[in-house]
TrEMBL record:
This is DUF4062 domain-containing protein. InterPro entries: DUF4062 (IPR025139). It comes from Rhodococcus opacus (strain B4). Keywords: Plasmid. Residues 2-83 form the DUF4062 domain. Pfam families: DUF4062.
């Protein structure tokens, strides 16, 4: 496994330097920002690429918050944490004791400690103490199952699908094909009127913390007594010969506890594209985002997925980045497709089990889509 070591150097030099050799000695590969070049502060993009290329995220919390990127107003370590969180990576967190934390670092450490799912959390005093605990955590991680479990549903689950609560005005952008994902807690508590009043601010904060809403981007929640909807800013139009990538378009949370996300399909000048591999990766990423936002309660969840929109045809194809000159026939305008669950899932669906959950969801969606276009 590739282990990404995330920390500020200042105040943690011996501990940080003690880990690469240790990780190699237990047959894993260390990844550090020092590997990205000689600059004292690597670019944010380089740090995020390092996280993306790794299998496990190892965070050392010391007294210093560190260099702040102007793009996000957060430190490199903070941005790396968000990237690991939203990707559902296993996270090993070790906090140094016996030192005074800067106020900003203390705030960050408290936030990290609030995320128990997907984490191993420990404390250390020095490099020798840290090394023994890292080895123990990695050995434990090697033996952990995904903890994703399925249980047969005994009755149907009623979701609020997007076209039941959204009445967009006529216009091609609002009607582009979209995928909608809904999560309904089966044993959670409904939100009280008091909690619904605080939900708009909580939802915006959760989206920013999870990296789905950039710090500089504005967002105006549409709040009622029943639900809060946040529509996310979109990129400008793609060039004629470019493939526009998928974009998260919005999030909705209602008083029953249902959490919904919807996103656009990739498209070019010929059609929108359903690519099973791309759609599975995107669905897994959004399942992890739902978990990272920490808005769900309960232990068992029903998941529904659907396809909607009217103004653009869809073809099943590969997203390659190379302009297409033709498409397969027979998929016409977009059918409305909804896939209801027959099983509930555990909370691991939003973390270590996100990939498996996404595979099941996308397989059902593709079967229903193909059946509707025959």
């Amino acid at each position: 496994m590739r282990i990404f070591i995330s920390s500020v150097r200042s105040g943690l030099e011996p501990e940080r330097d003690s880990l690469p050799g240790l990780i190699q000695a237990v047959a894993h590969e260390p990844v550090r920002f020092e590997d990205f070049g000689a600059q004292p502060h690597p670019s944010r993009e380089a740090c995020i690429r390092g996280v993306d290329s790794s299998d496990v995220y190892l965070l050392l919390l010391g007294p210093k918050y560190g260099h702040v990127f102007p793009e996000t107003g957060q430190s490199a370590t903070h941005d790396e944490w968000v990237a690991a969180l939203t990707r559902g990576m296993p996270r090993l967190v070790f906090r140094k004791v016996g030192v005074d934390f800067e106020p900003k670092q203390d705030e960050f450490a408290r936030m990290v400690g609030d995320y128990s799912t997907g984490n191993f959390y420990g404390e250390f005093t020095d490099a020798v103490d840290l090394q023994s605990k890292v080895v123990q955590a990695l050995r434990t991680l090697d033996t952990l199952p995904t903890a994703l479990t399925y249980e047969r549903l005994t009755e149907p689950v009623a979701f609020a699908w997007k076209d039941q609560w959204d009445r967009p005005p006529a216009g091609p952008q609002r009607q582009d094909p979209y995928v909608e994902l809904h999560v309904r807690p089966l044993d959670g508590e409904p939100r009280s009127a008091r909690l619904m009043r605080t939900l708009p601010e909580q939802l915006i904060s959760a989206l920013r913390t999870a990296g789905a809403l950039p710090p500089e981007a504005g967002a105006s929640p549409d709040a009622t007594s029943d639900a809060v909807v946040v529509e996310l800013p979109t990129r400008g139009p793609a060039g004629f010969e470019q493939t526009r990538p998928t974009e998260l378009r919005g999030v909705r949370v209602d008083g029953t506890g249902q959490c919904s996300l919807w996103w656009s399909l990739p498209y070019d000048s010929l059609s929108s594209i359903i690519d099973a591999e791309e759609l599975t990766a995107t669905t897994a990423r959004h399942l992890r985002l739902i978990g990272a936002m920490k808005l769900l309660t309960g232990e068992r969840f029903a998941l529904g997925i659907g396809l909607g929109g009217k103004q653009r045809s869809i073809t099943e194809d590969k997203v390659t980045g190379v302009p297409r000159s033709r498409v397969s026939l027979g998929f016409g305008s977009v059918p409305t497709v909804r896939v209801d669950p027959d099983e509930s899932l555990s909370a691991a669906a939003f973390d270590r089990g996100a990939e498996e959950s996404a595979q099941v969801l996308v397989a059902g969606l593709l079967d229903a889509f193909r059946a509707s276009t025959r």
